[in-house]
User: Fold these one by one.
Assistant:
Number 1:
Amino acid sequence: MARSGRAVRVKGLARLKERLQDMPDQITDALVEAVKESAEAVRDDVKRNVPVDTRGGDSHHLKDAVDIRYREGGLVADVGWFGPENSYATYVEFGTRRRPAQPSLYPALERERGRFAARLTDEIRRALR
C-alpha cells in the first residue's frame, strides 16, 4: 500500500482479481463484507474526529459529508469527501501556510489498517463454516 498525495493506492489489485475468480463465491462475499466493515469503521472514525467549525453560521460540516464509494464489486472502498462543496477538506486534512493540518482521514485509515487483517480473517472463517 502506498500513499500518494490525497489517496492511498493498493498495489497488486489486478493479481488479486485473477485469484478471486478461482475462489468460491462465499470467500469473495466474505472479502467484500470485510472491506465494507473497514470502510464503515474509517468513515465513523472520521465523523468522530474531523474538526467542526461552530463559530460561523454555516450548517455544512465535513463530518456530515464524509462518504463511502465502492468499486471493483465491493472489493475497493474509497472513503472521503467527493463533492465540490467539500473541496476544503484537503485544506483541513493537510493544512495551509496559515492554518495547521488537522488530519482525520489518514489517522482513521491508519487505525483501521491493523484491524483489517483481523476482520478479513473473521469473515473468511465465518464463510468457511
Note: The helical segments are 13-21, 25-49, 62-65, 89-94, 105-128.
Number 2:
Amino acid sequence: MIKISPSVKSTFPETKFGMMIVNGLCSPIERAVMDNIKATEIEQMKLNNSGYERKPALTKEPLCHYAAYYKRYNKTYHVLGQLESVLLKGKSIPPVGIPVEAMFLAEVKNLLLTAGHDLEMIEGDLTVNIATEPLNYKGISGKEQQLIKNDLYLSDEKGILSSIMNGPDYRTRITESTQNALYFIYGVEGVTEPLIHAHLKTISSYLSQAIPGVEVQSINVY
C-alpha cells in the first residue's frame, strides 16, 4: 500500500515513517472522556517540563532531529510552537473533533510530526518522495500551496496528501463524516522505530477511550 521512493532511501537512508489505519470513527463518542484525557495529559506535560526553556529543549530527542530538518529551510519546527503554547500560554487542544484532537494531543506530547487523512478519500497506492519540482496542492486551509524543494511528501495516485513543511491537504482531510482514517508519521532522520510505534499507540489509546467502537486495523513502521 505504501512505497518509499529510492530517492528518499538514498538521501535520507535512516528516515523512518509510521502509518496507522483505524476504523469506526463515527461510532458514538465519549466527549467527557476526551476532555479528561486532554486535561490530564496537559497537566502532566507541564509537570514534565517545569522550568521549560527552548534552547535546552532543542538538544533533546526527538526535537533535535526535527530542528535539524527544519533548519535546512530556515524554519522553526511548528510542533515546538504548539508545545510552548501549552506550556507557556496556557493553551489547550481545541475541540475540533476527537479523531483530530487525539492526533494533536499525541503530537504535542511526543513531538512527532503527524498527518491525519480520511482513508476513503485516498485513491490507489501511497508513495513517500522528495520534492524535486514545485508541485502545487490545496492545503488543509483550502489555499494552494507549493512543495518546497527537497522536502519529504506523501502522495496517492491522484495527488499530494501532505508534506513536512506545508502540512496536510484539503482533499483527504479528516472531517465529522470520516469513518476510517490513516495517521502518518514523518520520522525524520534520528527518530527511531520504537518512538514512532509508541506514538501511534498513544493516538490509538486516546481514540479507543473516547470512541469505544474504534478499531485499529494496522500499525506499521517503514
Note: The mean pLDDT is 96.
Number 3:
Amino acid sequence: MMHIPNTNFHIFGQYDFGSSSDTRTMDGQAGVKYILPVDAVDVEFKLGYRVMDHEFGYFEGFDSDQANVMVDGWFGGLSFDF
C-alpha cells in the first residue's frame, strides 16, 4: 500500500500466483482506499478491481472450460479500525 502525501488516500495492489502439476491459480487486485479518522476509530472506504483465474488440470473427463474458473469485477468495502 502506498500513501499519497498530504491526503487521506492510499493506493493498494496485490498479486498472488501459484502453480502445481496441472493446476494454476492467480489472484490480483488493485484499488484506492480513503481513511477518514474519527476520534478513536478510523473509517476506511475501499474501491478496486479484482481478477481471480483458476485452472484445475486434475479433473479428468471434464471439458477444459468446465475445469477453469475466471471471475473479475469491481468491488467496494467499508471497514472500521479501532
Note: The chain has a mean pLDDT of 90.
